[in-house]
């Protein structure tokens, strides 16, 4: 697997939906025509330097945050990247967890979350300590339940497929059946409901789940579908 493929796999394992291309011209076209949350850009491309990609998309008034990856460690390289419009610069070799952390930090800032504590109504989630509170009372979640809730909060308002959750939880390795996501969601909903923060997680039937603001109109669920979720407790998480 090449460098582009490895980076794409890191991002997919962290729960991101990824498009990737190998050439600068292709990257420019993708960024100009699609509304991405974030771009991760290699500095050395086969047809141009990453600096030129950043310069041209910024000239086209594309505001998508961009992280530049490069083996160049000299300060001048970083200064040039920032001067043409990059949002971050990560030197290779890098740790996969650091890349994901930087991506999440930029996404938080771009979506108005400058602090590591995220609030949705009465729900408070601390990205640093991985603690969850509702009205300042702690909610005890398993590691998998927390990971699902964190992904939902960071992608608030976006529909997340079960595949995205599986990638986030298992990274493509030893993945269980897809129905396990319904089990985790069911248990997570019950814990949030018991704590006083129910109806945050909406089922988008045939597509996946999303987290909405408390005052946002919930999705429509039939009695049969609600009953199906309620019966998921028979499965082991």
TrEMBL record:
Alphabetical UniProt keywords: DNA-binding, Phosphoprotein, Transcription, Transcription regulation, Two-component regulatory system
UniProt cross-references to Gene3D superfamilies, sorted A to Z: 3.40.50.2300, 6.10.250.690, Winged helix-like DNA-binding domain superfamily/Winged helix DNA-binding domain
InterPro entries recorded: CheY-like_superfamily, OmpR/PhoB-type_DNA-bd, Sig_transdc_resp-reg_receiver, WalR-like, WH-like_DNA-bd_sf
Domain of life, per lineage: Bacteria
DNA-binding region(s) in UniProt: 115-213
A Pfam family assignment: Response_reg
Residue span(s) of domain OmpR/PhoB-type: 115-213
Response regulatory domain: residues covered: 1-107
Record GO cellular component, one term: cytosol
GO molecular function terms attached to this record: phosphorelay response regulator activity; transcription cis-regulatory region binding
Keyword Glycosyltransferase attributed: no
GO biological process: regulation of DNA-templated transcription
SMART domains linked to this entry: REC, Trans_reg_C
Transcription regulation as UniProt keyword: yes
Name of the molecule in the record: DNA-binding response regulator
């Amino acid at each position: 697997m090449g460098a582009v493929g490895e980076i794409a796999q890191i991002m997919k394992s962290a729960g991101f939906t990824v498009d990737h291309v190998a050439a600068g011209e292709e990257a420019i076209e993708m960024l100009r025509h699609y509304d991405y949350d974030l771009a991760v850009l290699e500095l050395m491309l086969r047809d141009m330097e990453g600096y030129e990609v950043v310069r041209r998309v910024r000239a086209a008034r594309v505001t998508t945050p961009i992280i530049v990856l490069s083996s160049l460690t000299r300060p001048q390289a970083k200064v040039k990247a920032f001067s043409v419009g990059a949002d971050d610069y990560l030197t290779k070799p890098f740790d996969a967890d650091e890349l994901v952390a930087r991506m999440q930090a930029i996404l938080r800032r771009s979506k108005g979350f400058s602090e590591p504590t995220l609030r949705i109504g009465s729900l408070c989630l601390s990205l640093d300590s991985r603690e969850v509170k509702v009205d300042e009372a702690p909610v005890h979640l398993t590691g998998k339940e927390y990971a699902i809730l964190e992904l939902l909060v960071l992608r608030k308002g976006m529909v997340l497929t079960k595949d995205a959750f599986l990638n986030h939880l298992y990274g493509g390795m030893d993945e269980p059946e897809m129905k396990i996501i319904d089990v985790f969601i069911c248990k997570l909903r019950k814990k949030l409901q018991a704590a006083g923060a129910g109806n945050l997680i909406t089922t988008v039937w045939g597509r996946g789940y999303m987290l909405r603001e408390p005052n946002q109109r919930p999705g429509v669920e039939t009695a049969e579908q609600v009953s199906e979720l309620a019966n998921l407790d028979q499965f082991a998480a």
